[in-house]
Design a protein that fits this description.
298 residues; alpha/beta; 434 Repressor (Amino-terminal Domain); Endonuclease, Chain A; 2 domains
């Protein structure tokens, strides 16, 4: 079982340490539980604490080879092939990601999302005010970033724009994720920075992207306000992964932090909301007409 999970990570997570980190953490948790060992005892065995074991098992920190080797011994993992596979998974989990070069503009709470987004096979998102980051043009992204970071100097702004454009490359790779975005019409009618500017090119780009077989864009018209708006359902994303060991993740972003949800009850609620938003929105084939209408009005 461990070997299968490790092979999945090898196949699907090259250059992205997030999935191997989560898979290794989950496997260490499974092994510890099966051995009947508490987090506190495991932490003591590696000269740490129960909180360190918790962070390791959640895939939130990198792994020291000595710690992993000692834990495998503690948990009774003696088979050399299984140990080798898990240690190889550890090497992947500790690898540097492509976004490491943007560490100066990537807060810790967002780094996890970059890894999840890069590894996802399906990304469903709902936006009320802005075009989703993956679907933004460079000029639109620059306008949004300047509004969101009014104190940033031009160099920092361009670094953030470059990061966003690097994220968008996932749409053009050989095995891209399926992206399904639902936007409120206000996203198109109330561009950041006012009318004019980069919005026309942005809507044209959405029209171009919507022709790709793996991208679906729908718009909820302003006269058909989403029934969940009054319940406070703001922007969110749901990410699904090819690895069977990884649950879906709901991502909620605030101004200076983010929330990651993976409990079944939370996932059911957000999946239901997303399904209803798709029903409230204009069918994807008819969205082309709205895009053209917006373009003609800009």
């Amino acid at each position: 079982m461990a070997a299968d999970r490790g092979e999945q990570a090898l196949d699907n997570s090259l250059g992205n340490p997030t999935v191997p980190r989560i898979l290794l953490g989950a496997e260490l948790r499974r092994l510890r539980t099966a051995a009947g060992i508490s987090r506190g005892s495991a932490g003591y065995a590696i000269r740490g604490s129960d909180s360190k074991i918790s962070r390791m098992e959640l895939g939130r920190i990198s792994f020291k080879p000595r710690d992993v080797a000692d834990l495998l011994t503690l948990y009774g993992v003696c088979d050399e092939s299984e140990r080798a596979m898990l240690l190889e998974l550890m090497d992947q989990a500790n690898a540097q990601s492509w976004w490491h070069e943007f560490a100066d503009v990537v807060p810790g709470w967002f780094e996890a999302y970059l890894g999840l987004e890069d590894a996802a096979s399906v990304i469903r998102c709902y936006q009320t005010r802005l075009v989703p980051g993956l679907l933004q043009t460079e000029d639109y992204a620059r306008s949004v970033i300047r509004l969101g970071h009014p104190l940033a100097d031009p160099v920092e702004v361009e670094r953030r724009v470059a990061l966003r454009m690097n994220r968008a490359r996932v749409l053009r790779r050989s095995r891209p994720p399926k992206v399904w975005a639902v936007l409120d019409e206000a996203v198109l009618r109330n561009p950041p920075g006012g009318r004019g500017g980069p919005m026309r090119a942005q809507v044209e780009y959405l029209l171009e992207l919507s022709r790709l077989p793996h991208v679906t864009v729908q718009v909820v018209p302003s006269h058909r306000s989403p029934r969940y708006a009054d319940a406070g359902a703001g922007p969110f994303s749901i990410l699904r992964f090819p690895e069977a060991a990884l649950p879906d993740i709901v991502y909620l972003e605030q101004l200076t932090s983010a929330t990651y949800l993976d409990k079944a009850d939370d996932l059911d609620v957000y999946a239901t909301v997303m399904d209803q938003l798709c029903l409230d929105a204009i069918p994807a084939p008819d969205t082309v007409g709205l895009f053209n209408d917006v373009i003609n009005g800009l």
